[in-house]
Design a protein that fits this description.
Largest sheet: 6 strands, mixed
Shape: flat
Low-confidence stretches: none
Number of strands: 6
Radius of gyration: 26 Å
Order of helices and strands: EHEEEHEHEHHHHHHHHHHHHHH
Length: about 375
Amino acid sequence: MPEDLRPEWIDTAEGVRLAADLCAASGRLALDTEADSMHSYFHKVCLIQVTADRRHLVIDPLSLEADALEPLWRVVADPSVPVLMHGSDYDFRVLDRDYGARIRGLRDTQIMAMLLGEEKTGLAALLEKELDIHLDKRHQRADWGRRPLTRSQVAYAAADTAYLGGLVERLRARLDELGRWAWAIEEFSNLELVRYSPPETDPLIFERIKGARALHGPARDRLFTLHGWRDRMAQTMDVPPFKVLGNRQLLLLSEDPPADLTALGEVEGIGPRAVRRWGRDLLTVTGNPRRAPERVRPPRPPNPPPEVRHRLKKLIAARDAKSKDLSLQEGLLCSRSCAEAVAARQPRCSSLADFEEAGLGGWRLEVLGGVFLEALADD
């Protein structure tokens, strides 16, 4: 059980080197990270958990120079050493962003579960079902950037890698039985190509707040200006924006701006502390807002011609029937965008090579190629 794991805390370059040696010698390792995205604006990797040869190591990157972790990154980049992970997309991105780390030999248990048609693919649900292990989730929202961490927190973090070895073995056996292990290898290889890319700046991001699109004129200008002010404050304080002011408070201030500090203090969710700290700033922002950018309606894509819509309808029906037969989610087997590309291809798809050119490849082509050819045979 998690409380019995006895994880080892590593906060020295020598400790990382020894951990990397252990991983290389064991022939495989389980890997996970914890970040502080719920507690900071500039979120970062705060823990790196590794399990190898029945030892559970929790590495503290906040105590180390970035180059001290290079021995570990050399091991995880070796495709001959499988790296067991769960839901690794985010880990790939932050490890690339913060360290330029590359992972090869991936074995992702969430992908394996999805290819088995599991409805619940979270780690806790899979461990409970496959290994009768119950994870304690009380530290799910912990601030991993704080130090020191409690023994309970360290054990919680270690549990995310401690049981991946057994879980991989159980799920792989089931995939082998269904003849789907090659599908998993293909999905792992695709995920290994994931890289971090900075989010694009969207001047209309304030409109993602629920209720924002109901605002017009000065109220919309106030929300735009308040949203920008909140983001700047959050960056300065290195906290998530909601810890400055919540979305509901932004809407209330935008709809009915307070005339003075007393009125500001009476706004729902804005207490005396916020009034003391930001009261005059908020009065200035709401009293003299900047003009919000105009909402530009993107051009509507042209409606596909009737024959393309007809093909798409038949392809979707064939996909859905095959998905049901395989107990897979429809979108996992073939996304709607891929089906649309197949339906729209000119000249009409009439061979497996045509499907591949339209974007349907790999194991999905093997599964759906014949089905799609049959669906379009009389088109």
